[in-house]
Amino acid sequence: MKFDTPATTNPIDQLKVIGKPTDRIDGPVKTTGSARYAYERNAEAPDAAYGYVVGAGIAKGRIASMDLSAARAAPGVLAVVTARNAGKLGKGDFNTAKLLGGPEIDHYHQAVALVVANTFEQARAAAQLVRIDYTRSPGRFDLSAEMAAAQLPKPNPFSGEPETKAGDFAGAYAAAPVQLDATYTTPDESHAMMEPHASIAAWKGEKLTIWTSNQMIAWGVGDVAKTLGIPKANVRLVSPFIGGGFGGKLFVRTDAVLAALGARAVRRPVKVALQRPLMMNNTTHRPATIQRIRIGATREGKITAIAHEGWSGDLPGGQAETAVNQTRLLYAGANRLTTTRLAVLDLPEGNAMRAPGEAPGMMALEIAMDEMAEKLGLDPVEFRVRNDTQVDPEKPERPYSQRRLIECLRTGAERFEWSRRNARPGQQRDGRWLVGMGVAAAFRNNLLTKSAARVRLDNRGMVTVETDMTDIGTGSYTIIAQTAAETMGVPLQRVLVRLGDSAFPVSAGSGGQWGANNSTSGVYAACMKLREAVASKLGIASGDAEFSDGMVRAGERTVPLAEAAGANGLVAEDGIEYGDLDKKYQQSTFGAHFVEVGVDAATGEIRVRRMLAVCAAGRILNPKSARSQVIGAMTMGVGGALMEELSLDKRHGFFVNHDLAGYEVPVHADIPHQDVIFLDETDPISSPMKAKGVGELGMCGVAAAVANAVYNATGIRVRNYPITLDKLLDRLPPVA
Ligand code: MOS
To answer: Which atom of ligand 1 is nearest to the CA of 352?
Structure first.
């Protein structure tokens, strides 16, 4: 089905099932522990051996020698896979560094060996016996030191152009009566999902099956095939349950490829879970950024000039964090400049983490807006309202499909009792606490990407949906079931959803908050085709057929779906494909974040007291799962504001705090009252579902709202995340 004109009324609009706060249909298997994750596929691979990954002990250089004799002789060891004996390996499209390194080492903890043994303990013990001597080379580890050498990166489909200009930024900025020029930094961050990267690989002749934990099945199949040098048709990836991804599982990683190599070496299935202490340096992470923002405005608070320049680093051949991109779109202003620069760093690979680009970009931009509002003597809500735009400010001929940022801000201000905030910082006390409120806009683009599904109707009237879409904890199973139930006119209980298998039609996958809108649109397309098949079987025009309550009705005729399906059932496969609607219209999601914090006047300890997010993100397919997504995102935003930081050893080029003990993320006790409001809207430009994404929107802007609240509480402006108490301590107001 091609979606190239705005959606009109369709079966989804009945809203009998769609739009309801339905419990997760995968809830029971998750909460009873019977959902089997990649590492638990013992039934499919009962004879699996265990692989243990050895990571490089240097960041840059070569393996001078490797002594495997003690490891090979250790009890239970079946094989030790290294680059020397693995055969020729290619590199996947989505991997920057090789997943099996050696003799050249590209980054710290790059895998250099897989020890395979009968038990996990044997593999782990033998891995300690691998002896490696390295020759170190000098590496580039410090972004600030490499800033001057940074270059404009090559454009790619996700990042867009590295530099954009409109009008005359320099002239307009110089002439502006009110100016801000400030630099912000965000640290390297880790996805730190609960389930580590894990895979079981099994060969049957030339055919390889990998049960794995992966967000993007089709990308993964392609990259496994490329890396191993085998046809895609010989690779099957299965990933029905995923214990969190956050972008860290967009790509196949070491676990999958080494499990496949190990299984080939020992002629037995091999299971590999990436050890937690390897995760931060072996896999990808959100790269640190340095961001300079300049804003010029009239005294009335109209932005006349805005510039956002960003620097980040990655391995040779890697990509930039596009932290400046939302600044191309979010606020009005005739004179504009944005630039992304990329430095070469010999650190572990930088890549997508929840809302890549906007998450760190909004951390900077939305503090800058707060600073500017203060210079102007304007309320920060009002300053944003005055600079709203209903068109792409760089290309004014492109309107937004829908943009209700102002309504988000105003609704939130009222609900949060923003009027109680004292604009002068450091004024409000509650016992030992300095109390403050902060606001930030939320913004994340809405990406359209094709997505397919297969739908089957059987002679019991059951509808089965199959698509390689994944559910990374987001609720995909449930919204897909709701979509099929609504479109086919059956209760939710009559729908079965099977996900995450490369044997199924290729979906949008889970990434960039595009999963919900696109994957359900693909399911909708397949269901519409199935409706045609049902109608044609009954000899009625599909336009005349009405599907409801498990029946097809046409004129006087009413036929149960089970009967219409016939003995062999009916099956249809289709997908959604998009025309150029998203080129004609700018599609984004909007929101407003409000945060209240308390800062201990003596110790500088920061406690979030309450949070509110107001989101405008098209039709909300399931308010319950969408709310959970936003709450999770707000929580992650608090992590970004106050806690998360991969501590970099700049001499040796690795992240020191490489486990969950050292990498701090929020826990329940850190998170107080959270509230979410969705504006009631549909976006006919986004898809037949009229929906958009929320899973990343909910995070974008949160950290800045926290930072702005800390400023309001204390009068201390921290521009370097995370805002830890040491950055406040020597500047706190005197304790009375
Ligand atoms: Mo998202 S960072 O594209 O999983």
So the answer is: 2
